[in-house]
Specification:
Layout lengths: L11 H11 L6 E5 L12 E2 L9 E2 L3 E4 L10 E9 L13 E4 L11 E4 L3 E3 L3 E4 L9 E2 L10 E3 L7 H9 L4 E5 L3 E7 L3 E2 L10 E2 L2 H11 L3 E8 L3 H14 L2 E5 L10 H8 E6 L3 E2 L5 E5 L2 E6 L3 H19 L10 E5 L10 E10 L5 E5 L9 H5 L2 E5 L10 E6 H5 L1
Parallel strand pairs: 5-6, 13-16, 13-17, 14-15, 17-21, 19-23, 22-24
Antiparallel strand pairs: 1-12, 2-11, 3-10, 4-6, 4-7, 5-9, 8-9, 18-20, 20-21, 22-26, 23-24, 23-25, 25-26
Helix pairs in contact: 1-6, 3-6, 4-5
The structure holds adenosine monophosphate and magnesium ion.
Amino acid sequence: MNCCDQPGLMTVEQALERLLAAAQPITDIETVALMSALGRVLAADQLSTVDVPPADNSAMDGFALRFADCNADAETTLPISQRIPAGVVPESLQLGSAARIFTGAEVPPGADTVVMQEQCKWDDGAVTINAGIVAGTNIRPRGQDIEKGAIVLQQGRRLTPQDLGLLASVGIAKLPVYRRLRVAVLCTGDELVEPGETLIPGHIYNSNRYMLLGLLQALGFDCVDIGIVADDPEATEQALLKAAAEADCILSSGGVSVGEEDHVKACVDKLGSLDLWRVAIKPGKPLAYGHVRGVPFIGLPGNPVSVFVTFAIAARPYLLKTQGASECSPLTIPVVAGFSRPNSAKRQEYLRARLVPDDQGRQRAELAGSQSSGVLSSVCRGDGLVIHKLGEAIAEGDQVLFLPFPDLLY
Ligand code: AMP
Ligand code: MG
């Protein structure tokens, strides 16, 4: 597949490959408490210094015993020789006896089986166990989850809530993570006013600032909010220099297209280099990448939907890799198309879609309203994006790839 009919346009895959090859992961490391580590990227492999669980323990409330002391084909009555709640170190099991035991409590040395209490009748002195006892049941063996010395999580992992639980389970209280990436955001456009201000004729509210800062915050980056930048070379240059001085990466919206009011590209070229411009993506063709005084710069288009799509598809993986994350490509899931589209001859399209189960219980993607790049409300109505591959048509019932928002945005 190529884009010969539009010389200079590279495919989304080519652009992503170039962006990711250029991304330089940051190396500054800081130590944080486990409680503050959610969403941070691990700077070193984490090893367990203990077995989890640290000893064989009971998976049930019931009785611990030696299988050899029981008759599997008939009831067995045994004296109760000790009581072992969780948190207590048990004594060795007396031969020919049972120990009352509770979930999570350590199995006493000498016992090899736990019988759940639903299979038992007991009083203070003795327990009678139903026929049908199976050797070795209901014991969680030492090291079943994690063995001492094993790597529990690898460098480059973006920590999830379940990761914090796993790290806690091996006793890790502090851990090395990469310093948070600082990302500057500037919104170009003489037409922009901030929400809360009166909308004067010829103007529109600045949506990109709030959406971009939200997208960045959701990914755990520190934001430097440069605000609105006028459509003039001087103002653009000043804003880019300020952003380069204060941040690790710069994101801009608008001003990267071909009109004479689009000053961003020329300024980036003047202050550094423009390394990539124009991608066969819809919406979002004028996507740009370069450096300003050595600081990486991503120029997103102006239309809010284009900003959203190009951020999710291109800027997000670039920034995550720069943050040190090893996994930065989003989940794609195959779904059934609930719509038809003609051949997308020139650009790969990202369609806003909702997932609706069909009558066979399969996930079917329906378009979430207008696909115009000026219609942000259909992004809000969608559950994710369907990839309409370059040079292909989509017929209703075809299998298409779907990028769910929860995975694209966090
Ligand atoms: P541009 O690429 O600067 O020509 O912008 C393309 C379109 O996006 C124009 O209709 C702009 O008015 C609109 N746009 C640019 N920036 C923003 C913004 N921050 N918020 C909302 N719309 C914007
Ligand atoms: Mg503009």
